[in-house]
Amino acid sequence: MQKLAVYLPPMNTEEKRTDVNTLGEFGLIEHLTRPFSLHQASSIKGIGDDAAVLDHGDLCTLVSTDLLVEGIHFDLAYTPLKHLGYKAVVVNVSDIYAMNGQPKQITVSLALSNRYSVEALEELYAGIRLACEKYEVDLVGGDTTSSPKGLTISITAIGQAEKERIVYRSGARPGDLICITGDLGAAYLGLQLLEREKRIWQEHPGIQPNLEDQKYAIGRQLKPEARKDMIEVFRKINLVPTSMIDISDGLSSDLLHICKQSKVGALLEEDGVPIHPDAQMLALQFKLDPITCALSGGEDYELLFTIDPSDVEKIKYLPEIYIAGEIVEEAHGTRLQTKGGNLHPLKAQGWHHF
Ligand code: ADP
Ligand code: MG
Fold this sequence. Notes:
This protein has helices spanning 24-33, 81-97, 118-135, 186-203, 215-222, 228-236, 251-262, 277-285, 290-296, 312-315; strands at residues 43-45, 52-56, 59-69, 102-112, 138-146, 151-162, 177-180, 243-246, 265-269, 303-307, 322-328, 334-337, 343-345. The protein has ten helices and 13 strands. The N and C termini lie far apart (44 Å). The chain is globular and about 65 Å long. The strands form two sheets. A seven-stranded mixed sheet has the order 8-10-7-11-9-12-13, sandwiched between helices. Bound molecules: adenosine-5'-diphosphate and magnesium ion. The site of magnesium ion has 6 residues, from strand 8.
């Protein structure tokens, strides 16, 4: 075959260069994907929710992908590979539950440097397998490639839902109640604890950390669970939330996603935000306000959802569902009412990865 003539234009040093940080993660996604339009009638929901929704008649397919990069999303100094594998699956199936769907299959793609031995990868896959068993999903494929440095894991989850039971971020209406499935902030505090112990260990190798008292927060960070049980409860009590998202970036950021997509505001009550007593104690140790950890911490993987007020009887006596406020008109903004009765605008701070 004839060689292609390659013409490389001279490098233009005048070319406009915008740092990705100026847009932020969500701004960047919006900026890059805005020019795309959907061509297929089967693409019911593309970009912008916890998972994409593909039409297959009465049943829809849900698809969600996550990318985990060593040094950005995980640190192997304190994350056992088995836990990492487990968590990588959990964060993906969580996005399918956040659509009120059932995850069915996953694919796992790896880019790895030669630092990783077969034994290390076996550990990673032992964690992936454990999660596959717990959430009843099948590993059906993936891709493996080498990388100059570190480990990158990309998991795609494929799920299923009945069309009329799918819950989007965009369905909240003024008057709806804001609900949360479990306590918040502990995963973030667990991470602070692990980071602190890592620093101590780096300065004084040999000192073994004693984390016995902090099992709860560390467990929330290293071995989170997705709320499969709650999706089953919703079906049992015949409830379809009006909107839903999983709390991966922090309550503030994720509630703001619901508000933006639903074109509504929210009044969140500090008193209604569940925080575990261990997280309260730990926050004080770190001189942090527990509510700030719940609002901005992230990685709790609880479900944040809204319900029509006429459905309140269905959830009122369920121990693991907390009512934390109300959806209001968009013009009223998104605000937190503190225990002292003051109002503060909610800010999205769930953006530490870039
Ligand atoms: P989550 O926190 O629930 O995993 P993300 O914030 O990662 O959700 O993504 C929000 C939406 O943007 C999703 O619909 C996702 O599919 C889409 N998205 C994220 N990154 C990209 C990308 N690089 N190109 C196209 N769509 C993207
Ligand atoms: Mg999500």
